[in-house]
Write a structure and sequence with these properties.
Structural class: alpha/beta
Helix content: 25-40%
Number of helices: 13
Largest sheet: 7 strands, parallel
Strand content: 15-25%
Oligomer: single chain
Protein backbone atom coordinates (compact mmCIF):
# COMPACT_ATOMS: atom_id res chain seq x y z
CA UNK A 1 0.00 0.00 0.00
CA UNK A 2 1.37 3.39 -1.02
CA UNK A 3 1.86 6.22 1.47
CA UNK A 4 -0.56 9.12 1.11
CA UNK A 5 1.09 12.34 -0.07
CA UNK A 6 -0.98 15.55 0.01
CA UNK A 7 0.38 18.69 -1.64
CA UNK A 8 -1.16 22.04 -0.68
CA UNK A 9 -0.24 24.53 -3.40
CA UNK A 10 -1.47 27.17 -5.92
CA UNK A 11 -1.44 24.58 -8.69
CA UNK A 12 -4.30 26.14 -10.70
CA UNK A 13 -2.90 29.68 -10.90
CA UNK A 14 -1.00 31.63 -13.57
CA UNK A 15 1.89 32.28 -11.21
CA UNK A 16 5.49 31.19 -10.86
CA UNK A 17 4.45 29.21 -7.80
CA UNK A 18 1.70 27.64 -9.90
CA UNK A 19 4.24 26.45 -12.48
CA UNK A 20 6.50 25.15 -9.71
CA UNK A 21 3.54 23.30 -8.14
CA UNK A 22 2.54 21.62 -11.39
CA UNK A 23 6.07 20.44 -12.07
CA UNK A 24 6.48 19.15 -8.51
CA UNK A 25 3.24 17.15 -8.59
CA UNK A 26 3.97 15.82 -12.08
CA UNK A 27 7.37 14.60 -10.86
CA UNK A 28 5.74 12.89 -7.87
CA UNK A 29 3.26 11.14 -10.16
CA UNK A 30 6.04 9.91 -12.44
CA UNK A 31 7.97 8.55 -9.45
CA UNK A 32 4.95 6.27 -8.91
CA UNK A 33 5.61 5.72 -5.20
CA UNK A 34 2.79 7.59 -3.48
CA UNK A 35 -0.97 8.03 -3.41
CA UNK A 36 -1.08 11.71 -4.34
CA UNK A 37 -3.78 14.28 -3.63
CA UNK A 38 -3.75 18.03 -4.24
CA UNK A 39 -5.27 20.73 -2.03
CA UNK A 40 -5.54 23.61 -4.50
CA UNK A 41 -4.89 27.10 -3.11
CA UNK A 42 -5.09 30.62 -4.51
CA UNK A 43 -2.06 32.89 -4.92
CA UNK A 44 -2.93 36.47 -4.07
CA UNK A 45 -4.83 38.16 -6.91
CA UNK A 46 -3.15 36.10 -9.64
CA UNK A 47 -5.53 34.66 -12.24
CA UNK A 48 -7.08 31.26 -11.51
CA UNK A 49 -8.09 28.43 -13.87
CA UNK A 50 -4.82 27.41 -15.50
CA UNK A 51 -5.63 23.69 -15.57
CA UNK A 52 -8.99 24.19 -17.31
CA UNK A 53 -7.38 26.54 -19.81
CA UNK A 54 -4.64 23.99 -20.51
CA UNK A 55 -6.72 20.82 -20.34
CA UNK A 56 -4.74 18.88 -22.93
CA UNK A 57 -1.45 19.16 -21.05
CA UNK A 58 -2.55 19.40 -17.42
CA UNK A 59 -6.04 17.87 -17.26
CA UNK A 60 -4.61 14.72 -15.66
CA UNK A 61 -4.31 16.70 -12.41
CA UNK A 62 -8.08 17.21 -12.03
CA UNK A 63 -8.92 13.82 -10.43
CA UNK A 64 -6.25 14.40 -7.78
CA UNK A 65 -7.71 17.66 -6.46
CA UNK A 66 -9.54 17.51 -3.10
CA UNK A 67 -11.47 20.16 -1.17
CA UNK A 68 -10.33 19.28 2.33
CA UNK A 69 -8.08 16.99 4.34
CA UNK A 70 -10.19 14.42 6.20
CA UNK A 71 -7.41 12.16 7.45
CA UNK A 72 -3.81 12.81 8.45
CA UNK A 73 -1.61 12.01 5.43
CA UNK A 74 1.64 10.13 5.70
CA UNK A 75 3.39 13.00 3.92
CA UNK A 76 2.25 16.63 3.77
CA UNK A 77 3.86 19.25 1.54
CA UNK A 78 3.09 22.96 1.32
CA UNK A 79 4.31 25.02 -1.62
CA UNK A 80 4.10 28.62 -0.44
CA UNK A 81 5.98 31.23 1.58
CA UNK A 82 7.45 29.76 4.81
CA UNK A 83 5.42 31.77 7.32
CA UNK A 84 2.38 29.79 6.10
CA UNK A 85 3.95 26.37 6.71
CA UNK A 86 1.98 24.12 9.08
CA UNK A 87 2.50 20.58 10.36
CA UNK A 88 -0.38 18.43 9.08
CA UNK A 89 1.10 15.07 8.12
CA UNK A 90 3.20 12.44 9.85
CA UNK A 91 6.08 13.85 7.83
CA UNK A 92 6.02 17.49 6.68
CA UNK A 93 7.80 19.19 3.78
CA UNK A 94 7.96 22.91 3.08
CA UNK A 95 8.74 23.93 -0.50
CA UNK A 96 9.41 27.58 -1.30
CA UNK A 97 11.17 29.60 -3.97
CA UNK A 98 12.67 31.32 -1.01
CA UNK A 99 13.78 34.86 -0.59
CA UNK A 100 15.05 37.60 -2.88
CA UNK A 101 16.88 39.57 -0.20
CA UNK A 102 19.73 39.11 2.31
CA UNK A 103 17.58 38.27 5.34
CA UNK A 104 14.05 37.04 5.96
CA UNK A 105 11.46 37.79 8.62
CA UNK A 106 11.63 35.72 11.84
CA UNK A 107 8.19 34.29 11.02
CA UNK A 108 9.76 32.62 7.98
CA UNK A 109 12.42 30.89 10.08
CA UNK A 110 9.73 29.80 12.54
CA UNK A 111 7.74 28.35 9.64
CA UNK A 112 10.75 26.45 8.30
CA UNK A 113 11.32 25.02 11.77
CA UNK A 114 7.79 23.60 11.82
CA UNK A 115 8.66 21.27 8.94
CA UNK A 116 10.70 18.08 8.86
CA UNK A 117 12.35 19.02 5.58
CA UNK A 118 12.59 22.27 3.62
CA UNK A 119 13.22 22.51 -0.11
CA UNK A 120 14.21 25.77 -1.80
CA UNK A 121 14.82 26.71 -5.43
CA UNK A 122 18.34 28.16 -5.27
CA UNK A 123 21.61 28.29 -3.39
CA UNK A 124 20.89 31.96 -2.71
CA UNK A 125 17.70 31.12 -0.81
CA UNK A 126 19.36 28.31 1.10
CA UNK A 127 22.19 30.57 2.22
CA UNK A 128 19.84 33.34 3.38
CA UNK A 129 17.74 30.94 5.45
CA UNK A 130 20.83 29.33 6.97
CA UNK A 131 22.44 32.63 7.95
CA UNK A 132 19.41 34.64 9.15
CA UNK A 133 19.04 34.80 12.93
CA UNK A 134 17.25 36.87 15.55
CA UNK A 135 17.61 37.38 19.28
CA UNK A 136 14.58 36.79 21.48
CA UNK A 137 14.31 39.30 24.32
CA UNK A 138 12.06 39.59 27.38
CA UNK A 139 10.27 42.72 28.53
CA UNK A 140 13.49 43.92 30.19
CA UNK A 141 15.48 43.69 26.97
CA UNK A 142 17.43 40.64 28.10
CA UNK A 143 18.29 38.00 25.52
CA UNK A 144 16.45 34.78 26.36
CA UNK A 145 16.95 32.83 23.15
CA UNK A 146 17.57 32.89 19.42
CA UNK A 147 15.49 32.27 16.32
CA UNK A 148 17.54 30.40 13.73
CA UNK A 149 17.07 27.58 11.25
CA UNK A 150 17.13 24.21 12.99
CA UNK A 151 15.57 21.89 10.39
CA UNK A 152 17.13 20.35 7.27
CA UNK A 153 17.15 22.47 4.10
CA UNK A 154 18.10 21.44 0.57
CA UNK A 155 18.07 22.95 -2.91
CA UNK A 156 15.55 21.46 -5.31
CA UNK A 157 16.23 23.44 -8.46
CA UNK A 158 13.44 24.26 -10.87
CA UNK A 159 13.64 22.29 -14.09
CA UNK A 160 12.32 23.36 -17.49
CA UNK A 161 10.22 21.22 -19.82
CA UNK A 162 12.53 20.60 -22.76
CA UNK A 163 9.64 19.38 -24.90
CA UNK A 164 8.13 22.89 -24.74
CA UNK A 165 10.98 25.32 -24.19
CA UNK A 166 13.30 24.90 -27.15
CA UNK A 167 14.41 26.64 -30.34
CA UNK A 168 11.76 26.84 -33.08
CA UNK A 169 12.07 27.75 -36.72
CA UNK A 170 9.68 30.27 -38.21
CA UNK A 171 7.66 27.53 -39.92
CA UNK A 172 7.08 25.85 -36.52
CA UNK A 173 5.26 28.88 -35.05
CA UNK A 174 1.60 27.91 -34.69
CA UNK A 175 0.00 30.92 -32.97
CA UNK A 176 -0.51 33.19 -35.97
CA UNK A 177 -2.16 36.07 -34.11
CA UNK A 178 0.74 36.26 -31.66
CA UNK A 179 3.21 36.12 -34.54
CA UNK A 180 1.39 38.93 -36.38
CA UNK A 181 1.23 41.11 -33.26
CA UNK A 182 4.98 40.92 -32.70
CA UNK A 183 5.70 41.08 -36.42
CA UNK A 184 3.82 44.39 -36.66
CA UNK A 185 6.56 46.04 -34.60
CA UNK A 186 8.68 48.06 -37.05
CA UNK A 187 11.97 47.36 -35.27
CA UNK A 188 13.79 44.15 -36.20
CA UNK A 189 15.50 43.91 -32.80
CA UNK A 190 13.49 43.73 -29.57
CA UNK A 191 14.63 43.19 -26.01
CA UNK A 192 12.06 41.23 -23.97
CA UNK A 193 11.23 41.61 -20.28
CA UNK A 194 9.00 39.12 -18.42
CA UNK A 195 7.65 39.65 -14.91
CA UNK A 196 5.17 41.36 -12.61
CA UNK A 197 5.50 45.09 -11.93
CA UNK A 198 5.52 45.10 -8.15
CA UNK A 199 5.22 47.84 -5.58
CA UNK A 200 7.93 50.43 -5.13
CA UNK A 201 9.11 53.74 -6.55
CA UNK A 202 10.98 53.85 -9.87
CA UNK A 203 14.23 52.01 -9.28
CA UNK A 204 12.88 50.34 -6.14
CA UNK A 205 10.33 47.71 -7.29
CA UNK A 206 11.72 44.18 -7.03
CA UNK A 207 11.68 43.32 -10.73
CA UNK A 208 13.04 46.84 -11.40
CA UNK A 209 10.61 47.41 -14.28
CA UNK A 210 10.54 51.17 -13.80
CA UNK A 211 14.33 51.50 -13.88
CA UNK A 212 14.55 49.16 -16.87
CA UNK A 213 12.23 51.45 -18.83
CA UNK A 214 14.14 54.57 -17.84
CA UNK A 215 17.49 52.89 -18.59
CA UNK A 216 16.26 51.77 -22.02
CA UNK A 217 15.07 55.28 -22.88
CA UNK A 218 18.33 56.86 -21.70
CA UNK A 219 20.48 54.30 -23.50
CA UNK A 220 18.91 54.70 -26.93
CA UNK A 221 17.54 58.26 -26.91
CA UNK A 222 18.24 60.47 -29.94
CA UNK A 223 19.77 57.59 -31.90
CA UNK A 224 18.76 56.68 -35.43
CA UNK A 225 19.25 52.92 -35.22
CA UNK A 226 17.52 51.60 -32.12
CA UNK A 227 15.93 48.43 -30.77
CA UNK A 228 12.53 48.22 -29.09
CA UNK A 229 11.57 46.87 -25.69
CA UNK A 230 8.66 44.47 -25.22
CA UNK A 231 7.23 44.34 -21.71
CA UNK A 232 5.26 41.19 -20.86
CA UNK A 233 4.09 42.48 -17.51
CA UNK A 234 1.11 43.07 -15.25
CA UNK A 235 0.42 44.63 -11.88
CA UNK A 236 -1.85 41.99 -10.35
CA UNK A 237 -3.71 40.48 -13.27
CA UNK A 238 -4.24 41.25 -16.94
CA UNK A 239 -7.23 43.56 -16.50
CA UNK A 240 -7.93 46.73 -18.49
CA UNK A 241 -7.55 48.72 -15.29
CA UNK A 242 -4.11 47.23 -14.77
CA UNK A 243 -3.16 47.93 -18.38
CA UNK A 244 -4.12 51.59 -18.06
CA UNK A 245 -2.07 51.91 -14.88
CA UNK A 246 1.00 50.37 -16.56
CA UNK A 247 0.68 52.67 -19.58
CA UNK A 248 0.37 55.63 -17.21
CA UNK A 249 3.59 54.61 -15.43
CA UNK A 250 5.44 54.17 -18.72
CA UNK A 251 4.33 57.60 -19.92
CA UNK A 252 5.40 59.21 -16.64
CA UNK A 253 8.89 57.74 -17.02
CA UNK A 254 8.98 58.67 -20.71
CA UNK A 255 8.14 62.29 -19.91
CA UNK A 256 10.98 62.42 -17.37
CA UNK A 257 13.61 61.74 -20.06
CA UNK A 258 14.84 64.80 -21.94
CA UNK A 259 15.22 63.84 -25.60
CA UNK A 260 14.13 64.72 -29.12
CA UNK A 261 13.60 61.10 -30.03
CA UNK A 262 12.97 58.03 -27.83
CA UNK A 263 12.87 54.32 -28.71
CA UNK A 264 9.58 52.42 -28.66
CA UNK A 265 8.28 50.30 -25.80
CA UNK A 266 5.44 47.84 -26.36
CA UNK A 267 3.19 46.37 -23.68
CA UNK A 268 2.12 42.75 -24.07
CA UNK A 269 -0.61 41.46 -21.75
CA UNK A 270 -2.83 38.42 -21.34
CA UNK A 271 -2.59 34.91 -19.92
CA UNK A 272 -0.42 32.80 -22.24
CA UNK A 273 0.03 29.04 -22.17
CA UNK A 274 3.53 27.56 -22.14
CA UNK A 275 3.63 26.96 -25.90
CA UNK A 276 2.59 30.56 -26.59
CA UNK A 277 5.31 31.82 -24.28
CA UNK A 278 7.90 29.69 -26.07
CA UNK A 279 6.71 31.03 -29.43
CA UNK A 280 7.03 34.57 -28.08
CA UNK A 281 10.60 33.75 -27.05
CA UNK A 282 11.28 32.31 -30.51
CA UNK A 283 9.82 35.15 -32.55
CA UNK A 284 12.53 36.38 -34.99
CA UNK A 285 12.23 39.95 -33.71
CA UNK A 286 12.73 38.95 -30.06
CA UNK A 287 16.51 38.90 -29.89
CA UNK A 288 17.37 38.89 -26.17
CA UNK A 289 15.85 38.88 -22.69
CA UNK A 290 16.76 41.57 -20.18
CA UNK A 291 16.20 41.85 -16.44
CA UNK A 292 17.55 44.40 -13.96
CA UNK A 293 15.94 42.43 -11.14
CA UNK A 294 16.85 43.26 -7.57
CA UNK A 295 16.50 39.65 -6.49
CA UNK A 296 15.04 36.28 -7.49
CA UNK A 297 14.35 33.12 -5.54
CA UNK A 298 15.08 31.36 -8.83
CA UNK A 299 14.13 33.34 -11.96
CA UNK A 300 12.18 30.81 -14.02
CA UNK A 301 11.53 32.93 -17.17
CA UNK A 302 15.27 33.49 -17.54
CA UNK A 303 15.90 29.74 -17.51
CA UNK A 304 13.11 29.00 -19.98
CA UNK A 305 14.19 31.78 -22.35
CA UNK A 306 17.78 30.54 -22.31
CA UNK A 307 16.58 27.28 -23.90
CA UNK A 308 15.85 29.17 -27.14
CA UNK A 309 19.61 29.78 -27.48
CA UNK A 310 19.22 33.57 -27.41
CA UNK A 311 21.32 35.93 -25.25
CA UNK A 312 20.32 37.12 -21.81
CA UNK A 313 21.23 40.31 -19.91
CA UNK A 314 20.52 39.95 -16.20
CA UNK A 315 21.58 41.04 -12.73
CA UNK A 316 24.58 39.16 -11.37
CA UNK A 317 23.04 38.35 -8.01
CA UNK A 318 20.52 35.93 -6.41
CA UNK A 319 18.78 32.80 -7.68
CA UNK A 320 19.34 33.13 -11.43
CA UNK A 321 23.12 32.88 -11.01
CA UNK A 322 22.65 29.15 -10.29
CA UNK A 323 21.85 28.51 -13.95
CA UNK A 324 23.12 31.58 -15.85
CA UNK A 325 26.72 30.79 -16.66
CA UNK A 326 28.89 33.92 -16.44
CA UNK A 327 30.88 32.86 -19.53
CA UNK A 328 27.79 32.79 -21.73
CA UNK A 329 25.53 35.49 -20.24
CA UNK A 330 25.72 39.27 -19.97
CA UNK A 331 25.62 39.57 -16.17
CA UNK A 332 25.30 43.10 -14.81
CA UNK A 333 27.55 44.22 -11.97
CA UNK A 334 26.13 46.13 -9.03
CA UNK A 335 25.98 46.53 -5.27
CA UNK A 336 23.79 45.16 -2.51
CA UNK A 337 22.01 47.90 -0.56
CA UNK A 338 19.00 48.27 1.78
CA UNK A 339 15.47 47.88 0.41
CA UNK A 340 13.66 51.19 -0.03
CA UNK A 341 10.62 51.73 2.21
CA UNK A 342 8.32 51.93 -0.81
CA UNK A 343 9.10 48.28 -1.67
CA UNK A 344 8.90 46.78 1.82
CA UNK A 345 6.14 44.24 2.46
CA UNK A 346 5.17 43.28 6.00
CA UNK A 347 6.62 39.91 7.05
CA UNK A 348 8.16 39.43 3.57
CA UNK A 349 10.45 42.20 2.33
CA UNK A 350 11.41 43.56 5.71
CA UNK A 351 13.27 46.61 6.96
CA UNK A 352 16.97 45.94 7.37
CA UNK A 353 17.17 43.51 4.48
CA UNK A 354 19.12 44.27 1.32
CA UNK A 355 19.02 43.42 -2.36
CA UNK A 356 20.70 44.23 -5.66
CA UNK A 357 21.14 47.63 -7.28
CA UNK A 358 22.57 47.26 -10.81
CA UNK A 359 25.41 49.44 -12.07
CA UNK A 360 23.63 51.40 -14.80
CA UNK A 361 26.80 52.22 -16.71
CA UNK A 362 27.56 48.52 -16.91
CA UNK A 363 23.97 47.83 -17.95
CA UNK A 364 24.29 50.51 -20.69
CA UNK A 365 27.47 48.86 -21.96
CA UNK A 366 25.98 45.36 -22.06
CA UNK A 367 22.75 46.47 -23.75
CA UNK A 368 24.71 48.29 -26.42
CA UNK A 369 27.13 45.39 -26.86
CA UNK A 370 24.36 42.80 -27.29
CA UNK A 371 22.57 45.12 -29.74
CA UNK A 372 25.70 46.02 -31.72
CA UNK A 373 27.49 42.65 -31.65
CA UNK A 374 24.55 40.29 -31.73
CA UNK A 375 26.24 37.54 -33.76
CA UNK A 376 28.89 37.11 -31.05
CA UNK A 377 26.29 37.03 -28.29
CA UNK A 378 24.16 34.57 -30.26
CA UNK A 379 27.05 32.09 -30.08
CA UNK A 380 27.19 32.58 -26.32
CA UNK A 381 23.42 32.17 -26.15
CA UNK A 382 23.71 28.74 -27.77
CA UNK A 383 26.30 27.70 -25.21
CA UNK A 384 24.08 28.92 -22.37
CA UNK A 385 21.17 26.99 -23.89
CA UNK A 386 23.25 23.79 -23.89
CA UNK A 387 24.27 24.43 -20.27
CA UNK A 388 20.64 24.87 -19.22
CA UNK A 389 19.38 21.82 -21.13
CA UNK A 390 22.09 19.65 -19.64
CA UNK A 391 21.72 20.70 -16.01
CA UNK A 392 18.30 22.30 -15.43
CA UNK A 393 15.67 20.13 -17.09
CA UNK A 394 12.49 18.73 -15.56
CA UNK A 395 14.17 15.30 -15.59
CA UNK A 396 17.12 16.69 -13.60
CA UNK A 397 14.68 18.12 -11.06
CA UNK A 398 12.72 14.85 -10.82
CA UNK A 399 15.88 12.84 -10.16
CA UNK A 400 16.97 15.31 -7.48
CA UNK A 401 13.51 15.08 -5.85
CA UNK A 402 13.64 11.28 -5.92
CA UNK A 403 17.00 11.22 -4.15
CA UNK A 404 15.86 13.75 -1.56
CA UNK A 405 12.66 11.87 -0.68
CA UNK A 406 14.43 8.51 -0.52
CA UNK A 407 17.09 9.93 1.77
CA UNK A 408 14.90 11.95 4.13
CA UNK A 409 11.53 10.20 4.50
CA UNK A 410 12.14 7.28 6.87
CA UNK A 411 9.23 5.17 5.61
CA UNK A 412 9.39 6.11 1.91
CA UNK A 413 8.03 3.12 0.01
Amino acid sequence: MKNTFIVSCPIDTYSGYGARSRDFVKALIELDKYEIKILSQRWGNIAWGFIEDNEEEWGFLKPLIINEVTKQPDIWCQITVPNEFQKVGKYNIGLTAGIETTICAPQWIEGLNRMDLNLVSSEHSKKVFETTGYEQKNEHGQVIGHVKLEKPIQVLMEGANLDIYKPLSRKDLEYKDLFKDINSIPEDFAFLFMGHWMQGDVGEDRKNVGLLIKTFYEMFKNKKKVPSLILKTSITNSSNVGRREILKRINTIRNSVQAKRLPNIYLLQGEFNDKEINELYNHPKVKAMISLTKGEGFGRPLLEFSLTNKPIIASNWSGQTDFLNAEFTALINGTVKPIHKSAQIKDMLVEGSQWFYPDLQHAFMLMNDVFSNYKEWKVKGKRQGYHARTNFSFENMKESLKQSLNKNIPYSS
